[in-house]
């Protein structure tokens, strides 16, 4: 059990959840698996209101998807009887997978967002125990232009703006980036400048395969995107995007992280290409920018010399500590942590099932 | 469930017993002839998590869950509309799946 000052690294895999704990973010202890044989594609750690709540989107191949939460750092888990996320009969759909669980800003206690497959966005106001479907996005006129990437058709990123409670950005594969500026009543595609080279029109309004978006911590109208070939930044709330791929070994990848406090600092983990999904030259590395993507630094100290497994879109995370911790896991079941913003990594775990999601936070409540 | 002679027996896999109060066999009263869906509906009222494990929001039996009425797979009969009579057994087994 974690105590105050302990960093918890939640590791969601293809076959269960592991919780790693550390008091120095260098030496880690690994728990026994939770939810064995359930894949865990989404995790949220909600520390608002002086309580640490773990939210987990689990999915059994046999028994379907569901959301669990724990207020004692995995000591016990609770599942709402009727399901936290559930389509109504009139929606004519069934929940397939919970791709994202995202606690909103500090001053919006209880608000948690979810992004799901089939492509849908959900909002909870009770800490993730019950979510309501955003029906305007669900019934969006662009819907017939949305498709499925290899992993399924999903809203995988939901980013409420901390500066404006009416602004929310959503990213879906495939479909691209959508934005609402009226609290989720209306949604507009916001993909100008993002290429979709795999479509007949490589610059469509809709249909981009965005893999992950992240928001700048100081300038909420600045966003970063890792696309299916393409790394971009927007400085105008996603109205337009510019490439920031120069200086990277490749523009393909899944993860995109931003710093919890430093404007312009972001991390990506490049993959060689769509048709060759391995780290470039079989050498795993994280690339960090501190100037909004104008330049990049390759970080690989502590990472293996040879690695042919990739890092999926939610299998990377930062914590809120100072300096920020950077974490990621591979499809080969290795998990790495850096306590110094990516300068040096240590191996937290190896030989786990495919890592689908990691999230980390330092507890200040001893696990109450 | 209240004991009655007019009932079907639902046999629950061990992996689901924790959402049926640790019961592996559930007696579900049926007056005469019912459908598998109706039997599951009655169980859903008492064991909603069990129902979500077996069926999705559309009422469809999950892809890798198999239901048998007296040993016959309902997918080869009439699916959830398959008729079931008092005294018959509804067996639930997770299918061979996964890697």
Your description of this structure?
The complex is a heterodimer of chains A (368) and B (99). Chain A is mainly β and 368 residues long. Chain A contains one helix and 27 strands. Chain A has one helix at 135-138; strands at 7-13, 16-22, 29-30, 38-46, 53-60, 64-70, 97-103, 112-117, 120-124, 131-133, 154-160, 168-173, 176-180, 188-189, 210-215, 223-227, 231-234, 242-243, 252-258, 266-271, 286-289, 297-299, 316-318, 326-329, 335-338, 346-349, 355-362. The longest helix of chain A has 4 residues, at 135-138. The termini of chain A are close together. With 99 residues, chain B is an alpha+beta fold. Chain B has helices at residues 36-46, 48-54, and strands spanning 7-11, 25-29, 34-35, 65-69, 72-73, 83-84, 89-94. In chain B, strands 2-1-7-4-5 form a five-stranded mixed β-sheet, covered by helices on one side. Chain B has a two-stranded antiparallel sheet with strand order 3-6. The chains are: A mainly beta (368), B alpha+beta (99). The A-B interface holds A 37, 60-64, 66, 79, 81-83, 86-89, 91-95 and B 15-16, 48-49, 52-54, 56-58, 60, 62, 64-65, 94-95, 97-98.
| Integer count of domains of chain B | 1
- What's the shape of chain A? globular
In one word, what is the shape of chain B? globular
The strands making up the biggest β-sheet of chain A line up spatially as 3-2-1-27
Mean pLDDT of chain B: 93
In short:
The complex is a heterodimer of chains A (368) and B (99). Chain A is mostly beta strands.
Chain-wise SSE layout:
The complex is a heterodimer of chains A (368) and B (99).
Chain A: E1 7-13, E2 16-22, E3 29-30, E4 38-46, E5 53-60, E6 64-70, E7 97-103, E8 112-117, E9 120-124, E10 131-133, H1 135-138, E11 154-160, E12 168-173, E13 176-180, E14 188-189, E15 210-215, E16 223-227, E17 231-234, E18 242-243, E19 252-258, E20 266-271, E21 286-289, E22 297-299, E23 316-318, E24 326-329, E25 335-338, E26 346-349, E27 355-362
Antiparallel strand pairs in A: 1-2, 1-27, 2-3, 4-5, 5-6, 7-8, 8-9, 9-10, 11-12, 12-13, 13-14, 15-16, 16-17, 17-18, 19-20, 20-21, 21-22, 23-24, 24-25, 25-26
Chain B: E1 7-11, E2 25-29, E3 34-35, H1 36-46, H2 48-54, E4 65-69, E5 72-73, E6 83-84, E7 89-94
Parallel strand pairs in B: 1-7
Antiparallel strand pairs in B: 1-2, 3-6, 4-5, 4-7
Helix pairs in contact in B: 1-2
């Amino acid at each position: 059990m974690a105590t105050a000052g302990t960093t918890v690294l939640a590791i969601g895999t293809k076959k269960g959840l592991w919780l790693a704990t550390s008091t120095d973010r260098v030496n880690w202890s690994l728990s026994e698996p939770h939810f064995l044989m359930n894949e865990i594609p989404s995790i949220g750690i909600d520390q608002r209101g002086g309580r640490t709540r773990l939210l987990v989107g689990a999915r059994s191949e046999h028994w379907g998807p569901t959301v669990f939460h724990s207020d004692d750092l995995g000591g016990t888990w609770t599942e709402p009887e009727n399901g936290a996320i559930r389509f109504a009969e009139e929606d004519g759909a069934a929940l397939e997978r919970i791709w994202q669980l995202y606690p909103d800003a500090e001053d919006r206690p209880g608000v948690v967002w979810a992004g799901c497959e089939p492509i849908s966005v959900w909002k909870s106001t009770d800490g993730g125990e019950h979510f309501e479907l955003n029906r305007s996005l669900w019934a969006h006129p662009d819907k017939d232009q949305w498709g499925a990437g290899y992993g399924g058709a999903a809203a995988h990123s939901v980013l409420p703006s901390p500066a404006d409670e009416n602004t929310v950005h959503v990213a879906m594969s495939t479909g691209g980036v959508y934005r609402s500026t009226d609290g989720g009543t209306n949604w507009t595609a916001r993909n100008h400048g993002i290429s979709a080279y795999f479509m007949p029109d490589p610059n469509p309004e809709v249909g981009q395969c965005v893999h992950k978006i992240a928001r700048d911590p100081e300038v909420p109208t600045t966003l970063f995107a890792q696309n299916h070939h393409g790394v971009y930044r927007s400085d105008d709330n996603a109205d337009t995007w510019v490439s920031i791929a120069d200086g990277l070994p490749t523009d393909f990848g899944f993860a995109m992280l931003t710093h919890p406090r430093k404007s312009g600092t972001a991390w990506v983990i490049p993959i060689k290409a769509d048709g060759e999904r391995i780290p470039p030259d079989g050498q795993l590395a994280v690339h960090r920018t501190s100037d909004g993507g104008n330049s990049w630094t390759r970080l690989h100290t502590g990472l293996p010399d040879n690695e042919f497994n990739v890092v999926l879109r939610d299998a990377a995370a930062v914590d809120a500590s100072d300096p920020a911790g950077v974490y990621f896991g591979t499809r080969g079941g290795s998990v790495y942590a850096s306590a110094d913003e990516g300068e040096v990594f240590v191996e937290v775990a190896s030989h786990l099932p495919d890592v689908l999601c990691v999230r980390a936070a330092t507890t200040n409540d001893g696990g109450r | 469930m209240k004991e009655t002679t007019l009932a079907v027996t639902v046999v629950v896999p061990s992996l689901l017993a924790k959402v049926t109060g640790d019961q592996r066999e559930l007696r579900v009263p049926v007056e005469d002839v019912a459908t598998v869906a109706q039997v599951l509906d009655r169980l859903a009222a008492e064991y909603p998590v069990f129902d979500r494990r077996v069926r999705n929001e559309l009422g469809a039996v999950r892809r890798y869950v198999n239901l048998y009425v007296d040993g016959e797979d309902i997918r080869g009969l009439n699916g959830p509309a398959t008729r079931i009579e008092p005294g018959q057994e509804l067996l639930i087994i997770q299918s061979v799946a996964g890697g």
